[in-house]
Here is the input.
Amino acid sequence: MNKLNILLLILAMFISKTVLAVEGSFDDWPTEEELKDESPWKGDVQFGYLMTSGNTETSNMSGEFNINYGTVNWRHLLSLRGFSSSDDDNTTAEHYKIDFQSDKKIDEDSYYFGNFLYEEDHFSGFDYRTSATFGYGHRLFNREKTSLGTEIGIGYRKSEVTPSDVILDGDSSEDEAIIRLAALYHWEIAKDRSLDADLTVDGGEELTITNFELSFVTLVVGNLSFNATYAARYTSRVPVDKENLDSVVSLKLLYAF
Here is the structure.
């Protein structure tokens, strides 16, 4: 681990400890009256870039786009993410992710959901992963500034190994039914800063993937904010010579609209 990564990790740990008292909540379902005065569309664009030159030339770039459309009974969220890293003109990391979810309201705290996920990580040994899950979500509690929600569902996942890699048992792909479990926590410090912690587990007979993300957002000015995120993914079975655990710390500017 180089000095830059160590510095970013220390910064993320400091932020996490500082705002571990942060609160936030599930977005409440909008009422018809609120929709008369507000647009059902909400979203944000995020971008981060870091470059060093001299004895060592490195560059790291990350981007994210989120769009949310909410009505009285439906909520739709599309998230696009990308990350790349290079060292002396050699690409060392490249990751892309598309995540779409639709929620159908049952009551103020419960909903049905459908989720579609497509993910590429060119240095994990997997060419791509895609999954579709359907299930039930419920908000366990919703206080003034904090809330905790859970989701449980079933679905199907396809994983394809990069041709040059070999998965542990020699297969080049995995197709299996999965169970999805998720915990979604949001804590708001104040109107201008918040912390989100999301944990998801997609488990199948052959492969279990666990994702954890901790994200801190604080307002800079107007619609512009600063976002510090720590994300980790643990894959139970990986191709030969690949690590089970992948993690990244990202620092980005966020523009909300």
Remarks:
- The chain has one domain: 3-256.
